[in-house]
Design brief:
- The protein is 60% helix and 0% strand.
- The longest helix is centred in the C-terminal third of the chain and has 17 residues.
- It is mainly alpha-helical and 77 residues long.
- The protein is built from four helices and no strands.
- The relative contact order is 0.14.
Length: 77
């Protein structure tokens, strides 16, 4: 389950093939490129093989977690 760079249409089509939620299919999906340390990429690849969950799904989850983490506003005193 290695995710190769895909165009927008291919990514949307790929999500549909994997049974992604209807909500996600209705959203616009774009491709992006990031540089990641080779060791981390290998660990992600191994995790993906072991769990049979696409690397792209793990990366989308990580982005969601970061946006949630940094979107929180500090409590006012």
């Amino acid at each position: 389950m290695h995710d190769a760079p895909l165009g927008t249409a291919a990514v949307s089509e790929n999500l549909a093939d994997r049974g992604a939620s209807t909500d996600r299919q209705e959203r616009q999906v774009v491709s992006t490129h990031v540089l990641v340390e080779a060791e981390k990429v290998e660990k992600l690849r191994e995790l993906s093989k072991r769990t049979r969950i696409a690397q792209s799904e793990y990366l989308r989850e990580a982005v969601d977690d970061l946006l949630t983490k940094y979107d929180k506003k500090p409590e006012q005193e």
